[in-house]
Write a structure and sequence with these properties.
Layout lengths: L4 H12 L8 H17 L15 H4 L24 E6 L2 E2 L8 E2 L2 E5 H4 L13 H5 L7 H9 L4 E5 L7 E6 L6 E10 L4 E8 L4 E10 L4 E8 L6 E10 L4 E9 L3 E10 L5 E11 L4 E10 L5 E11 L3 E10 L6 E11 L5 E10 L4 E10 L3 H8 L5 H17 L5 H17 L3
Parallel strand pairs: 1-6, 5-7, 6-8, 7-9, 8-10, 9-11, 10-12, 11-13, 12-14, 13-15, 14-16, 15-17, 16-18, 17-19, 18-20
Antiparallel strand pairs: 1-2, 3-4, 4-5
Helix pairs in contact: 2-6, 7-8
Length: 430
């Protein structure tokens, strides 16, 4: 079927501004297949069902809009007190001088730019594979564009429980930087890995991570998206989760002009656990934050949780689109979905589209979505005990987001993010 004229023109203009990176046979084949997917689907438009609430115009544009880098002053970077292996990218370009050696106990780490040139590498079994599978039933053309054009990223294989987290530090320097990074991660049977992501990455950032979690393995992902006020980002997280495996992802977002985080999880093994959560804090009419999640249960006794909280003020906009699909035969599925927003004024808005699609009869699935202001009774209770107004409001905001923070298994990392939430609230009082 031919694409509509406007979508066709936008797609052609975007593709004319990019090129497929050099690589070996398998990488080139995967990139060409992804490019064909983009050409067939076209770039997203406001008439697409899952883009009705978010305008993709600046994500589709041939050039990135300008976004000055944000100066955090003396504020320590996230997780500064946690021992971790740091891998640094500046405007999407690997920085060896600021990175730690790409090696660790129970870890195999390499750059995508290096392994893509090899004829034989385990990444060929995953690169573009999970992303392509995640294109159905909902097309995700910006993820396919990433697979086609991303020249670098990390390729990580965990073969044992890894005690030291791996951190991807995405720094932003050039106000016009347009970056695409693609990560491939495999957690082998019985292994465990914690992956941290911090920083804005670029003026416009497109990242994709394909994560394969084998039986009895654990993958924990914690992301702090940078505070650059004008940055734009679209991210895709595609996961395949085997029997008795654990997958947990949490994202904390501050500021930004436009952020779209897509998560596609496929539970393929019995008794697997898949959790995805997030907290977004936005101040001002230029803030737009979109979480779009699709979880497929295809095995017995799987558990999934979606917990998303947004705190919005001064005309900020939050979006949540979440779906739980239970396939025939996926009995004893336990699916939970909650999306809530706290509107600190009458100018902000929250748009939600929760969905359940169930083809099994022995399941426990629920979803809920609410939007409202701070509880006046709770505020009065705190004020009556001598707590100043702004501090009482901050306490209630922290209580509101607590359920999402509880999804983080590592207490040290959760405490760090809690402190950053408190700092943001202090800076935005009044």
């Amino acid at each position: 079927m031919a694409l509509p004229k406007l979508k066709q023109e936008a797609t052609e203009a975007r593709l004319a501004a990019v090129a497929l990176p050099a690589g070996g046979a398998w990488a080139t084949g995967a990139r060409r297949a992804a490019l064909a997917r983009v050409e067939a689907m076209g770039l997203p438009g406001r008439r697409d069902e899952y883009w009705r609430f978010t305008n993709p115009e600046t994500l589709n544009a041939p050039e990135a809009p300008e976004a000055p880098a944000f100066d955090a002053g003396d504020e320590a970077p996230p997780f500064a007190d946690v021992e971790r292996l740091r891998i640094v990218f500046v405007d999407g370009v690997f920085d060896a001088a600021q990175s730690d050696p790409l090696a660790g106990e129970g870890l195999e780490i390499a750059r995508l730019a290096e392994v893509a040139a090899h004829d034989i590498h385990w990444a060929r079994e995953l690169y573009g594979v999970l992303e392509a599978a995640g294109q159905h039933p909902v097309p995700r053309p910006l993820a396919a564009l990433n697979t086609a054009t991303a020249a670098d990223g990390v390729v990580i294989r965990a073969t044992a429980p890894v005690t030291r987290p791996v951190e991807l530090v995405l720094l932003h320097r050039d106000s016009r930087a347009d970056a695409a990074l693609h990560h491939v991660i495999r957690v082998e049977e019985g292994a465990a890995l914690t992956l941290l992501e911090t920083g804005p990455g670029a003026a416009r950032l497109n990242t994709v991570a394909e994560v394969d979690v084998a039986a009895d393995a654990q993958f924990h992902h914690i992301r702090v998206q940078g505070r650059d006020h004008e940055r734009r980002a679209v991210t895709g997280l595609f996961a395949r989760i085997a029997a008795r495996a654990v997958f947990k992802s949490f994202t904390l977002t501050f500021n930004g002009r436009l952020t779209r985080n897509e998560v596609v999880m496929d539970i393929t093994g019995d008794d697997a656990n898949a959790h995805v959560a997030g907290v977004a804090l936005g101040d001002g009419p230029g803030f737009h934050h979109d979480d779009t999640v699709f979880i497929t249960h295809g095995a017995l006794a799987g558990e999934s949780r979606q917990v998303f909280k947004k705190v919005l003020r001064n005309g900020a906009t939050g979006v949540f689109q979440g779906k739980i699909l239970v396939q025939p035969g996926a009995q004893q599925t336990d699916g939970y979905q909650i999306s809530q927003s706290l509107l600190l004024d009458g100018d902000s808005s929250f748009l939600a589209k929760p969905e359940l699609e169930i083809y099994a009869d022995d399941v426990k699935c629920s979803h809920g979505s609410t939007s409202g202001a701070i509880d006046d009774h709770a505020l009065y209770y705190l004020r009556s005990r001598g707590i100043p107004l702004v501090e009482a409001q901050d306490l209630l905001v922290l209580a509101f987001v607590a359920e999402a923070l509880e999804e983080i298994a590592d207490e040290r990392l959760a405490a760090d993010l809690h402190g950053r939430l408190e700092g943001w609230l202090r800076r935005h009082r009044g």
